[in-house]
């Protein structure tokens, strides 16, 4: 590991680790390097089994520190990204059957299907839960899976999900997995066709939007947040409430997507579509304040970074949802819904009440189908009263 020690040290320094964290990580690299030399293992030959063996060896010699496995994984990931270790690390013999098949399925989704990382993660999570539930003995036999097992699992799990959409995601993931399993000859029957559909009705729900007065209170409260994390959170809240961006679109926003002279923002939305949006003055001012006074120094091109080292971009939409949840609690707002999407709904409802058409709202929210915008008509009670037929006879 000696030839890579200095480049890796510079990599740690660029990611903003404190001096103590930097020392701990580089010390672990030195120990790992000595162990590899002792075992006569080249850096390019490192496998997952070697990582586990080193951690066991290290634990016998000294008191293991919490986070050693994460720090070691960071080293091997860096070696992979720089081409020193080719391909994914080979799983050890102790890896369970479920872990091995899920890893193979993830590779299939990424390399053969080209799915987005977030979709890949969601599918793999749903499949892992299913396989774990049917693999009680520890040995996974996909060829012995029966349609009744799938039906029973969906019947047990679907009602526990919060929404119809989340239950539908489980069904979609399982169908995808069984098509993969048949493609790889793990099963001989078409179990994808045996996955039942989850009952649901289009336009059955009403958009769960935060009340307008709560949105104003949240944004007013955010003006007092002057810490680096507070400046970041205010800019994110304004992007959600004023432009109706999705959480994932904010997490993926990069510095090059902001055209300051033109006052324009390029948003990478669903379906890998890029759409320009006007940058309102208050939103641009909040982003500029964060970039100037709150954003840590980093080589990462994402606009919004973690508030603690490593100073990488926010991981996914769930990070944005956590920021919104904390902001709502910090502002003292009591609400049953704390997700980021409710601010997008609140913008649509407010636009509707101001007299904008559904077509204009759909263009603002970048909906690909008019059906996605039509649901907001259910919150326009004044408009519905005008088109409602009179009740026959006397009103009850």
Describe the structure.
The chain is mostly helical and 396 residues long. The chain has 3 domains: 2-81; 97-194, Tyrosine recombinase, N-terminal domain (DNA polymerase, domain 1, Orthogonal Bundle), CATH 1.10.150.130; 212-383, hpI Integrase, Chain A (Orthogonal Bundle). 56% of the residues lie in helices and 3% in strands. The protein contains 17 helices and 3 strands. Helix 6 packs across helix 8. It is globular, with a radius of gyration of 26 Å. The N and C termini lie far apart (82 Å). The mean pLDDT is 85.
Provide the fold topology:
Layout: H1 2-14, H2 19-39, H3 48-61, H4 68-81, H5 97-113, H6 117-134, H7 147-157, H8 164-183, H9 212-222, H10 228-243, H11 247-251, E1 258-259, E2 264-268, E3 274-278, H12 281-293, H13 317-330, H14 341-353, H15 358-365, H16 370-374, H17 381-387
Antiparallel strand pairs: 1-2, 2-3
Would you summarize the structure shown here?
The chain is mainly α and 396 residues long.
Nearest-integer average pLDDT:
85
The order of strands across the largest sheet is 1-2-3
Q: How many DSSP helices?
A: 17
Percentage beta strand = under 5%
By CATH's scheme, which homologous superfamily of the largest domain applies? Intergrase catalytic core
Category from helices, strands and their pairing: mainly alpha
Helical residue percent band: 55-70%
Question: How many beta strands in the DSSP annotation?
Answer: 3
Distance between the termini: 82 Å
Radius of gyration: 26 Å
CATH top level label of the largest domain: Mainly Alpha
List keywords for this structure.
DNA polymerase, domain 1; three-stranded antiparallel β-sheet; 3 domains; about 55% helix; mainly alpha; hpI Integrase, Chain A; 3 strands; single chain; about 400 residues; 17 helices
């Amino acid at each position: 590991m000696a030839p890579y020690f200095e480049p890796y040290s510079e990599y740690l320094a660029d990611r903003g680790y404190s001096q103590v964290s930097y020392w701990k990580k580089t010390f672990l690299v030195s120990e790992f390097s000595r162990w590899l030399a002792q075992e006569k293992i080249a850096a390019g030959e490192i496998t997952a089994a070697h990582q586990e063996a080193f951690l066991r060896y290290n634990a016998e010699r000294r008191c293991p520190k919490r986070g050693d496995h994460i720090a070691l994984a960071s080293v091997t990931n860096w070696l992979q990204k720089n081409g020193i270790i080719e391909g994914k690390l080979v799983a050890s013999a102790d890896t369970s059957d479920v872990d091995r098949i899920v890893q193979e399925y993830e590779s299939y989704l990424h390399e053969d299907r080209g799915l987005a990382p977030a979709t890949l993660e969601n599918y793999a999570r749903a499949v892992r839960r299913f396989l774990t539930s049917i693999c009680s003995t520890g040995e996974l036999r996909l060829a012995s899976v029966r349609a009744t097992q799938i039906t029973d699992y969906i019947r047990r799990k679907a009602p526990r999900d919060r929404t119809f959409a989340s239950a539908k995601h489980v069904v979609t993931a399982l169908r995808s997995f069984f098509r993969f399993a048949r493609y790889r000859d793990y099963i001989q029957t078409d179990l994808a066709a045996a996955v039942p559909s989850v009952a649901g009705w289009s336009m059955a729900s009403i958009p769960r939007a935060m009340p307008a007065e709560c949105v104003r209170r949240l944004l007013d409260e955010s003006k007092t947040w002057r810490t680096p994390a507070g400046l970041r959170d205010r800019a994110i809240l304004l992007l959600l409430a004023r432009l109706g961006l999705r959480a994932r679109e904010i997490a993926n926003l990069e510095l090059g997507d902001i055209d300051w002279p033109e006052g324009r923002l390029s948003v990478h939305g669903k379906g890998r579509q890029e759409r320009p949006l006007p940058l309102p003055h208050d939103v641009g001012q909040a982003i500029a304040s964060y970039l100037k006074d709150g954003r840590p120094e980093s080589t990462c091109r994402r606009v919004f970074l973690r508030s603690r080292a490593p100073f990488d971009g926010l991981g996914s939409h769930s990070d944005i949802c956590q920021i919104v949840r904390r902001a709502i609690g910090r502002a003292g707002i009591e609400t049953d819904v704390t997700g980021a999407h409710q601010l997008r709904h609140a913008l649509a409802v407010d636009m509707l009440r101001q007299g904008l058409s559904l077509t204009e709202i759909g263009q603002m929210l970048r909906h690909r189908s008019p059906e996605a915008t039509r649901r907001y008509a259910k919150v326009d009670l004044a408009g519905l009263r005008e088109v409602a037929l009179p009740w026959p006879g006397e009103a009850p």
